[in-house]
Amino acid sequence: MPDTAAFSYPFATLQQLAADVLGHARQNGATACEVDVSEGFGQTVGVRCDEVETIEFNRDKGVGITVYSGQRKGYASTSDFSPQALRETVEAALAIARFTAEDDCAGLADAALMAKDCPDLDLYHPWALSVEDAIETARRCEQAAFDASPQISNSEGTTVSTQQAQFVSANSLGFMGGYPTSRHYIACSVIAGEQETMQRDDWYTTHRDASRLDDPLSVGRIAAERAVARLGGRRIKTGEFPVLFEAPLAAGLLGSLVHAASGGALYRKSSFLLDHLGKRVMPEFVRIVERPHIPCGLGSAAFDSDGVATRDRDVVAGGILQGYFLSAYTARKLGMETTGNAGGSHNLIIEPGELDRAGLLARMGRGLLVTELLGHGINYVTGDYSRGAAGYWVENGQIAHPVEEVTIAGNLKDMFAGIVAVGNDVQVRGSKQTGSILIDRMTVAGE
Questions:
Q1: Mean pLDDT along residues 285-303
Q2: Beta-bridge partners for 42
Q3: What does residue 378 show for φ and ψ, rounded to 5 degrees?
């Protein structure tokens, strides 16, 4: 176990608190119980135009308790770790359970599926960053943006944040696991131009290990270059064109896949991917894998929120949907087995192709490169997709001019089937990793 001296409680104390809760639940007549005990702390510094705007410190702790009385479920939580508070919270959860309806699918996951030996995934890298050093880092990042171009006229601010947390999950089947984690980031947002011609853009870097963050100067410089490149944006004529989703936005398409293939949407019959398991949903060259045990990965986890051990698997192979994203509860609702995805996906990765962004632009020839999306116009029942967008018009494989105030529309089922290429320009910023994704055709509404 790495050094966790900066936390308010030793890890063993969190384990004991979890054990105490399970004991209280058993003594009070619960047929099953699961508990999460966590604490976290961090600091966030914001600088704007070289002036310190915010200095925030956070320190949180909590206990979440789920109890089962037969097929009835109750949940209660507290931020008080005292023995009396824990007993009262267990009693509150049991009282709630008495008033809930029975649910045949309620209950813990099968004991055989629980994580037993949790691998060390190297998820904890504390950053001993003083407030003064955080302010200096933010100032350097922002100044790099101003230095990048005389057209940078203002700043929306630069943020430097460091966060640490530890948790223990346990249940009455004998499972108990947990570990410390960390996550840090540097973000910069600036404005280019003056008055009616102003444009803004941003860039950020995030990692569990601060030594692997991008250089603050490069973060500021990229934010500035992106803002300046958007100056002179205009609308284009309405039509159907190929659309290239820049890598950070393409991760949202993976998020849409997860949502549509999640157990909750499926058992409610509110997904356009209902009954698509084993069917082709993407071109044959597309492969999407889940890799929960990547060392230091932003989406890595040894077990899911049910305590079920996570595992490597193919989600899409040869373009065919190989698996859903199921918790113990949603799996029972569907008559299937949990996939270890209670709480979401873990390092979902679409295998990159051979083309970088320039190569993808050349492959597209003529169409729209999207670098910003606005709104949330996605209907997961039908798959209909419509969102405001900004980016760049491409002619002959080259960026011709910036584009703003347009809407892109299509259907996710058609968009997935119409993937032409996946780039190798991967930005690792979260639990979903992909390069830019080129879609063969979407409706672009402009003038």
A1: 97
A2: 58, 163
A3: -125, 125
Cα–Cα distance measured from residue 401 to residue 20, given in angstroms and rounded to the nearest whole number: 63
Nearest of 91, 30, 106, 93 to residue 64 by alpha carbon: 93
* The Cα angle at residue 90 between residues 115 and 303, in degrees rounded to 5: 15
Q: Following CA atoms 431, 432, 436, 441 in sequence, which dihedral angle do they give, to the nearest 10 degrees?
A: -150
184/360 Cα distance (integer angstroms): 31
3-state secondary structure of 238: coil
Tokens of 381: 């029942």
CB 41 within 8 A of CB 7: yes
- Cα 420 from Cα 319, distance rounded (Å): 12
> Which residue's entry shows tokens 């405001």?
388
Residue 3 banded pLDDT, cuts 50, 70, 90: low
Dump pLDDT digits (tens) for 4-50: 778 999 999 999 999 999 999 999 999 999 999 999 999 999 999 99
Q: Would the pTM count as exceeding 0.90?
A: yes
What is the separation, in whole angstroms, between the first and last Cα of the chain? 60
Helix (H, G, I), strand (E, B) or coil at 21: helix
Q: Is 100 exposed, middle or buried (0-12, 13-18, 19+ CB in 10 A)?
A: middle
**What is the number of residues in the chain?**
447
125 DSSP β-pair partners = none
- CA nearest to 142, candidates 236, 69, 220, 29: 220
Q: Quick: pLDDT tens for 178-203.
A: 999 999 999 999 999 988 889 999 99
Tokens representing 304? 């899911």
